[in-house]
Structures are given as C-alpha cells and as structure tokens.
C-alpha cells in the first residue's frame, strides 16, 4: 500500500463532512475505474486504495477508530465494534447504483452491440385529387426509410467472422464488479449484455446493421376517402434494430383543391351561375359531375339566389362501399355587368311595369363615373 493516509488519498481535509468525502470519492472512482483504464496496473491499485479509504471514512465508527489509531488500529479490531465485519453497506450500494448507471451510459454505446429495438413509425402525406378520392386510387409512395442492411443481414458485422465472443464477459453478457466486500452483477458494458461484440464492422452500414434507403411501395387508397384520413401500412416504417420488428408507415390523405366542387362529407357542392332572366323565367342548366360529363337540372320559374337543388346520388361514395352522397347545386344569380341599349330599354320597361321610377341612365352613368373617377 503506497499510502495509509486515507484523507490524503481522497484529497479531503481531516475535518471533511460525509458529503465532501462521498463526492471526492466518486470523482476518483470514476477516474480510476478499471473499466476506463484497461490494462493500467497503476490505476487499478489506486482504485483499490481509494475504495479502502472510502470504506473507512464513510463509516462513522470506523472513521473514529482510524482517527485515533490509524489503519493498524482497524486491522486489530481496536474499536471493539467488529472492525470491518460490522461494515454496513446499504449506503454504499445506493451510491454504486448511480455510479454504474453513469459508467454504462458513457461506456455502453459504440463498441458493443445494442439490443434489439422496434423500428420507428414513419408518417407520409399523400395528396390526391377529388376524382381519385371518388374512384379510389393505387398510388406509388416514394420515401426514405431505414432498412436492414443487405450486406450483413442486420448483424452489423463483416461476414461470419466479424462477430466474436465478448472478451469482457466471455460471452455471458454479465460482468461482476467487486467493490470492497460487495460484488455487483451488471449487464456487460462492452457488449450491452449480448455476449458478442463486432470485431470487424460491416463496410456497407458501418456496424449499424441498418441503412437509409429510398423505398417505393404501392398503396391502395379506397374510394370515398376523406380529407385527413390516415392509412396504416403495418411494418412499412423503419426496420427494427438487431432483429427488432419494423415500425409502421402512416399515410395521411390530403385532397387537392378542386376547381368545381367543394366537399361536405359525402355530398359535393357546386355553385351554378344562373342568369337573371333564366332564374326569373325558369329553364334548364347543365352542371358537371365528379365522374365526368354533365347532368341537366331544372331551374324553376322564380328561382332565388342561394337556392340549393339536390341531385341524388351524384356525390362521393361511402368508404364503406354503400351508396353515394348527393350533388348540391347552389344557385348564384348572375347580374349582367354591361347592358346593350336594347337590354337597358327592356329592363327599364320591366322596372316601369313593376312601378319603379327609373332615372335617366345616361345621366346616372355620368354621375357615378365622376364619383368613381
Ligand atoms: Zn451491414
Ligand atoms: Zn460482454
């Protein structure tokens, strides 16, 4: 033993409190831990020394004995409290729990083989036209996802010889640490508990076992699909890690704006421009339908602006495959922007018949032109 001065070993004053001792020990234990100093004999012996120092200074009774009689006094059991035998380790165990977590989170990645894990779910937006939503559509989806590396079949290793038994745990996946009087069994930090390590990583994926790939799959979007509907392609997401199952692919359907129709659930809404005289006299109008072509509708005499006519079964199909919604034709009255002299004459006459007083159109036109500039 190089030094028997436990205080100097931990670098704390003789009157140091329990917390100060604990914190000093933790720093040193992390620094000299064998896991981080492989093959370094000096670090190993320092680690043993600081453990011994901490075992004594962290125990109130043993620290008293040590302060009075030195290390020799402890060995002789001079304190009369059973010496080392009376050492209770609950507190120490707690502390090492933390310590190991620390070590594993820092040292466990990279070199070892991570455990199997499910691949990530992916989301994709597919934009389709209203016509495609009406008929249903098969769509190629191109996207990037992580796939199992073809070169190594997901093992991450170069060929069969690229994997070897983990030298740290000798293939068991677990390691034992003894700290003073305690032995702790933990998942091996070298191999992540797998018992194997990659000695030669796959060249194609660098040992990850997975690679980003451009994927192309065909999906079937059912007729009648609604805006925002989400389709799930089971297993279509990222490949799992180390044989873990693949994530899912979620495809959200977006409908492109349509020049003629608005959608209202299973119904379609079409705005139909109707000339003033046609609305007054009645007649026929032609309206487009989603499957292509046009249908005739009857405009009754005296049709008002905003009136809605319902064309049965010319809307969207139900996603359940039963029946169709309706086409709702909303009347938008069209008032002529400009009148020919003859039309003005006739409108004037209509107005007089209806009892309206009509001012001279020429005079009025001039007046408004002035106002409007
Ligand atoms: Zn590979
Ligand atoms: Zn191992």
CATH-assigned fold name of the largest domain: Chaperone, DNAj Protein, Chain A
Number of strands: 15
What does the largest sheet look like?
A: 4 strands, mixed
CATH class type of the largest domain: Mainly Beta
Tell me which oligomeric state these chains represent.
single chain
Percentage of β-strand residues:
25-35%
- Distance from N terminus to C terminus (CA atoms, Å) equals 106 Å
Mean pLDDT: 83
CATH architecture designation of the largest domain: Ribbon
- CATH homology superfamily name of the largest domain: Heat shock protein DnaJ, cysteine-rich domain
Molecular shape: elongated
The side-by-side strand order for the widest beta sheet comes to 10-11-15-14
User: Which hetero ligands occur in this complex?
Assistant: zinc ion
Topology as H/E string?
A: HHHHHEHEEEEEEEEEEHEEEEHH
Give the proportion of residues in helices: 25-40%
Overall structural class, as computed from helix and strand content, comes to alpha+beta
**Low-pLDDT sequence parts:** 77-112
User: Count the helices. How many?
Assistant: 9
Instruction: Supply Rg.
Output: 42 Å
Quick summary:
The protein is of the alpha+beta class.
Question: Would you give an account of this structure?
Answer:
The protein has 373 residues and is α+β, with helices and mostly antiparallel strands. The protein folds into four domains: 102 residues, Helix Hairpins (Orthogonal Bundle); 134 residues, Chaperone, DNAj Protein, Chain A (Ribbon), CATH 2.10.230; 74 residues, HSP40/DNAj peptide-binding domain (Sandwich), CATH 2.60.260; 32 residues, no CATH class. Helices cover 29% and strands 26% of the residues. Helix 2 packs antiparallel against helix 3. The protein is elongated and about 130 Å long. The protein starts with 5 loop residues before the first helix and ends with a helix. About 10% of the residues have low confidence. One zinc ion binds next to loops. One zinc ion (ZN) binds next to loops.
